[in-house]
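New to this. Help decode both lines:
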Amino acid sequence: MSKKTARKSNYYQFERKMMRKMFSLILISIGMVLFLRELIRGRFGEAVVTFLASKFRLDYLDALYIYKTTFRENLDIIICIAIIIALIAVFRYSVHWVTGYFNEISAGCDALLDESRELITLSPEMSFLELKLNECKNVLEKRERDARQAEQRKNDLVVYLAHDIRTPLTSVIGYLDLMNEAPELSAEQRAKYLSITLDKSYRLEQLINEFFEITRFNLQSIPLNRENLHLSYMLQQMVEEFYPILSPAGKTAHVHVPEDLVLPGDPDKLARVFNNILKNAAAYSYPDTVIEIRAWQEGSQVRITFTNQGPVIPPENLRSIFEKFFRLDSARSTSTGGAGLGLAIAKEIVTAHQGAISAASSEEGTVFSISLPALEKEPSPTN
């Protein structure tokens, strides 16, 4: 159905009622004029003659003459006056009737700005407009909620950033003050404090880089340099890079990916996604456990999963795990992760690839699942 046809269908009930009312008013007016005409010609005339004869003590013929010269000979003028009066009455009633609809529409528009959650109600014949006004009200309420949430996220961003930057910054300043105020420190102690200060500085740099990255992703669309990448090779290389992080706690990572599985996408940004998820799995898994990384093609999608054995994530936390600055450890300690931006960045990148990312957690383990569009097969040549 075209927009023009849908619009005509929406207004049909209103137009039909308006035409029905107007037609009824016109018929009533015509009926009243005809009734007046017959009334003047019939018993009404006799009543007038009788009234004149009795009231003014006139002869019947004189009264009849007065009636004829006053009413019968001016019948056309009287009917015209009656028609004009009827038309004025019809017009006035029509204006009043239409104004009532305008008042309803005006009240409905005012209700759009109300904070009340009550639905806007109009006359039955205005149901199409009632539906549109309620749709507008829902859109405005959603935009208002989104604006409040955006403002809250901005406030949270400032609070979390200040908290996460202050902690390593305070440590850096503290150790530098200590070395400045205690020149008698041994070379060994000074080297130890310098090492800690350097680690905290790197931590501070990481936080600032993550903050600017998530801000950049929010303010503009993520540019993608797509190419076909061999997923098995990328994940194997990443696991080798994580060996120094995993081995001290006896953790290992196993990759189960077909060697011929090719994934179209931006290799640098997808590597960031896999890196962030693997870093999260390494931080929240039990010692001496295995992180399983699997990938396979399923129809037009490539499924990638990261499974680790660790504490069960509560359902309420799973719903927020991809939000910015969300951390599973409420104390926001530096030993288990970054600023809570890694998974949020991963979601932004996956979404830019027209993919989806989710998390599930149970006693069997925590699973991060990624779904990305597979490589489109080229049509085979026809003979």
Q: What stands out?
A: The chain has three domains: 3-113, 150-219, 227-373. The first strand starts at residue 227 and ends at 230. The chain has a mean pLDDT of 78. The longest helix spans residues 127-181.
